[in-house]
Amino acid sequence: MNIKDIFTRAGAGTIYILVILLGLLGGRFSFLAVFGAILAAGLFEFYRMVEKDTSHAISKIFNILSGVIIFISVFLYLENINTYLLPISVLTYLLILIASAIFLRRDDIFHGIIYSVFGQFYITMPLGLLMLISYSLQPDIAAGNAYDWVPVLALFVFLWVNDTAAYFIGSLIGKHKLIEHISPKKSIEGFIAGICFTMLASLIFDWLYPGFSVIFWMGFGVIVSLFGTLGDLFESLIKRTCKVKDAGDLIPGHGGILDRIDSLLVAVPAVFLYFILFLQ
User: Contact 202/212 with Cβ under 8 angstroms?
Assistant: First the structure.
C-alpha cells in the first residue's frame, strides 16, 4: 500500500467515524437519519452482492424500502408515537413475500424470498436493535424521549479498538491463523490482542461512566470483541461465497458500508441479549 492509498484510507475512515459520531451525539433524530441511510446502503450492497449473477426475483427497491420502514417504525415505537406500525410493517412485508411466491411464475422465487428475508435479519434487525440499545439504559422508556448515546458510543469504540488492535498486532507478530479458510489475514495473536485492548477500553468507560459496575463494562467489552470478530468473519464468508472482494466501493480504501459495519451486525444482537440478562 503506497502513501496515497494510506492517506485515502485514513481520510475516508476519519469521515466515516465523524458521520457515526454525528449520528450518535446529534440526538435521536440524527441517529434515525444517519443509521437509516446506513441501513439503506447496506441493504443495497447485500442484495446486489448475493444476486449479482441472477435476475432479481424480488425487487431490491422493495426490500430496501421495507427495511427502512421497519427501522423507522422501531423509532416511532420507542418514542411512543405509534406502537402499531412495527408489527404492521413486518407482517405486511412477510405477506407480500408469501404472495410473491404464489403469483410470480419463477423457478427461483424461493431463492429470492430467502435472500430477501435473510437480508432483513442480517442488516435491518441489528440496526433496529441498535436503536433499542440506545434507549435501554433509561429507566422509563414509556415516557418517551429516552435516547442515550453512551451505550452505543461504547459499542462503536469497543469495535474500533478491537479491529485496530487485532490488525496492527496481527500484522506485527501474528503467526498462527485464526480461521484461514475464511480470512487468511486474521491471526490468533491479533484476536487475543483485540480482546485485551477492548477490555482496557472498557475500563476507561467504567472510569468515565461509573453508574455501572466494572464487571458490566468488562463483560460488555468482551462480548463486543468476540462477536464483532465473528461478524467480520461471517461477512468474509458471504463475500467469499459470492466471489467478491468488497461488498461495495462507497468508502475509498475500505470498500462498502457492509465492510465497515460487518462486526457491528453480529455484535449488536449479542450486546442486546447481554443487556437483557445483565440489567434485568
Answer: no
pTM, 2 dp: 0.90
Q: What is the per-residue pLDDT for 280?
A: 66
Beta strands in 136-239, from DSSP E residues, in sequence order: none
- Any residues with CB less than 8 A from the CB of 260 and at least 6 apart, and which? 16, 251, 254
Contact 202, 217 (CB under 8 A): yes
Q: Which residues pair with 251 in a beta bridge?
A: 255
Region for residue 102 given its phi and psi (left: phi exceeds 0; alpha: psi -120 to 50; beta: otherwise): alpha
Query: What does the DSSP assignment read for 85-145?
Result: HHHHHHHHHHHHHHHHHHH---TTHHHHHHHHHHHIIIIIHHHHHHHHHHHHTSS-GGGS-
Structure-block grid coordinates of residue 208: 468515565
Residue 152 Cα distances to 90, 179, 185, 209, 210, angstroms:
25, 29, 28, 13, 16
| pLDDT of res. 143 | 47
Of 105, 114, 104, 209, which is closest to residue 157 (Cα–Cα)? 209
Rounded CA-CA distance 123/257 in Å is 11
Q: How many CA atoms lie within 13 A of 183 on its CB side?
A: 21
Query: Would you give the DSSP letter of residue 179?
Result: S
Average pLDDT for runs of 10 along the chain of length 280 = 67 87 92 96 91 72 94 93 93 91 77 88 96 75 67 94 89 80 83 93 90 90 95 89 78 80 95 87
Cell of 210: 461509573
* 3-class secondary structure, 255: strand
CA separation for the pair 77, 63 (Å, rounded) = 21
